[in-house]
Amino acid sequence: MLLEEEVAEDALVQVYFESYFKALFEELGHSGERRTVNALMVMFTHELYYGLVTNRQYCNRRNYCLKVSQKLMDDVSSALFLKSFGSEKLQKFQTLVNQIYNELILSFKSDISKMTWMDAESQTAALEKAQHMRLFADGGMSVFLNDTHLDSQLHEYPMNSGYLENAILLLKRYRKRMYSTYKKDPSDSEQM
């Protein structure tokens, strides 16, 4: 079991640590610029080809392109999904989400208070973090149902009719969004 996922016995699992990347970048600093650029281009080309061009399973091209777009533009996909519901249904969902969230926070606080393996300082920090955690007030509707917000997120990535060019732009956007959380403080309540 790995993160509650079944993993085949013959599966290869790669684990990287920050020290690995520091050593890698230090080594790249000693390599020639041309060699480094070539290595990065090969890695990027390989990822583009296997991630965006070849099908991993039998499916039609249109569905495959939609799946790739959905993964690369998760915020836009969420907006389209939310827009498929009426306002009454969304309000019911929001009420249910708030109720579940409040129950989870109470349960979490109760469990933390009962933990004997945690020292008092850690318990206090965890309880304080739980106390300051806030559910995004509207479940993201102000963001995902706001076309102006989505347009502002996508304006620097002009789309054209070329699949590969669009995929590269969207992959760049996806990576920027993904890596923007790397240096955030894990003790910040937003990070939980």
Automatic annotation (TrEMBL):
The organism's place on the tree of life at top rank: Eukaryota
Instruction: Specify the signal sequence span.
Output: none
The organism's taxonomic lineage, starting at the top? Eukaryota, Metazoa, Ecdysozoa, Arthropoda, Hexapoda
What Pfam families does UniProt report for this protein, alphabetically?
Peptidase_M13_N
Every copy of the Peptidase M13 N-terminal domain together lies at 49-135
Coiled coil spans: none
- State the InterPro entries in the record: Peptidase_M13_dom_2, Peptidase_M13_N
Sorted alphabetically, the Gene Ontology BP terms of this entry are: proteolysis
Protein name (Swiss-Prot/TrEMBL): Peptidase M13 N-terminal domain-containing protein
